[in-house]
Specification:
- The structure is a single chain.
- The protein contains 16 helices and 15 strands.
- By secondary structure, the chain is of the alpha/beta class.
- It has three domains: 17-272, Rossmann fold (3-Layer(aba) Sandwich); 277-422, Four Helix Bundle (Hemerythrin (Met), subunit A) (Up-down Bundle); 437-488, no CATH class.
- The strands form five sheets. The protein has a four-stranded parallel sheet with strand order 4-3-9-10, with helices on both faces. A four-stranded antiparallel sheet has the order 5-6-7-8, covered by helices on one side.
- Helix 11 (329-347) packs across helix 13, helix 12 packs parallel to helix 14 and helix 13 (379-398) runs antiparallel to helix 14 (405-422).
- The longest helix has 20 residues, at 379-398.
Amino acid sequence: MSLTVYNTLHRKKEEFVPLHPNHVGMYVCGPTVYGDGHLGHARPAITFDLLYRYLQHLGYKVRYVRNITDVGHLENDADAGEDKIAKKARLEELEPMEVVQYYLNRYHKAMEALNVLPPSIEPHASGHIIEQINYVQKILDAGYAYISNGSVYFDIEKYSKDHHYGTLSGRNVDDLLNTTRELDGQSEKKNSFDFALWKKASPEHIMRWPSPWSDGFPGWHLECSAMGQKYLGEKFDIHGGGMDLLFPHHECEIAQSVAAQGHECVQYWMHNNMITINGQKMGKSLGNFITLDEFFTGSNSNLEKAYSPMTIRFFILMAHYRSTVDFSNEALQAAEKGLSRLMEAYSNIDKMKVSEKSSVDIAALKAKMYEAMDDDLNSPIVLSHLFEAASIINRVIAGNDTIDQANIELLRETMNLFMFDILGLKQADAAQGGNNDETYGKVVDLLLEMRKTAKENKDWGTADLIRNKLTELGFELKDTKEGCDWKLS
C-alpha cells in the first residue's frame, strides 16, 4: 500500500512520505468560536478525521493539532473593524471568553455526535500571545514587516522581491494591486494588500495584550504559523483546511513562515471543497444557513425532517473531499437510506449460511477498498465496495451465492474495519434510549418469540397486537420461513 494525497501546493497527487519515519505532524485550521457550527464546518472536521484515522491505521503515530481562533479574527477577514468574538460578547453582554467557551462546548458536542476524534492538541490563539509576538519580531528582524502607528504589517511587495507570494493560490502581487478593494484603516499600510501581523487596539477594543509596539492583538493569519511551529516544529507534514482558507489565510501563512524561518514549513497542503445548498453558497443573508444542531433536530424551515449525525457524516463521505457537495433534502434522505442498507447488511452477516466452498472473493474486495483509500482518500469508492459487500450478504442469504467460514470472518473484519474504524460510522444507540444494543435486541426478539407462540396457538389477536405495537414504535417486520426479521425504520 502506498498512500497518495493531492498536494494543493503542487496541484497534483503525490506519494505521502512523512518527514520522520512512523511519525506524522498534521495541522488543521479549526473553528472561530463565535457562533453555532453549520454543515460547512462539519466537512473539514470529517475530512481530516478520515485522514487522521487512516494514517493511524497505517501504523503512523500522528500528532494532530487543530487550533481554536478566539482572538484577532476581524469582520470580513479584514485588518480593520471589530473582532468577531468581541462583537458577540458586546451584543450578548458577556465576557469574550464566555462566548468562546459557550460555542466551543457546542462545537465539541457536535463533533462528538459526528464521531470526529478529538485532536492530539487543541491550542487557543489567546493562549499563545507570547509565541505570536516573538514570531512577529522574527519577521521584523528579517526585514519583511514594518511598524505603522503601533501596528505591524507584513510587507508583501518587499517579500515578493526575494520570494514568491502566491505560490499556493497562483496569484501575484500585480493582480493583488489591481483587485484589492480599499478598506478603512488602510492608510497606515504601504500597500492595500499588506496584512496585519499585530494590530494596535482602539480604545473600545476589549481583547488586548501588551507588546513592544502597542497594546493590541495578533492578526488572524499569525496564530497558525506560531502554534504550528510550537507543536510540530519548523517543518511538518500536513496542513489542512477548507478551500476558502487557501487565499488569503494559508497564502499568508506560507509567506510568514518563509520570512521568519527562511523556508516553507509544510510538505503537503490539503484542502476540502465547499458545501452548497441548492446550488447557492451557504449564508445567513441568503436565508439558507442551517446549523448542525438544526440538522440534528429538524428545527429549520429548509429541512423536511431531522437527520442523525451519522446521516450527515455518511452524506459528506459519499463525495470525494475535493469535490463540491450540494445539500438537498433528497440527497440527505438518499444518504439515510444508504446508511441504513449498509448497517442492515452488516447486522445480517450471522444469517449467512456457511458452505464448504465460496463463490465470492472477499480478499479481492478488501484490496479494492485499500486501493481506494490510498488514492487520495477516495471515500465514495470505498462506500461503493461496501455496498458490494452488502449485496454479497443479501445474495448469500437468498441462496444465490455461497460463502465459507473463512470468507465470512474476513467479510465481517473488512466491513468492521472500513465502516467503523476508518470511515468513522457508528451504529445508532438502540432507539436513542441509551440502552445496551445487545440487551435491547434481546427484548425485541423475546416479543417476536411471544408473537410466534401466539400464532402457533392461533391467538391471532395477540400476534397482531405485538406486530402493530412494534410497527407503531418504528420497527419494520418481515416474516420469513425461519421466523421474523426486524429492523428500525
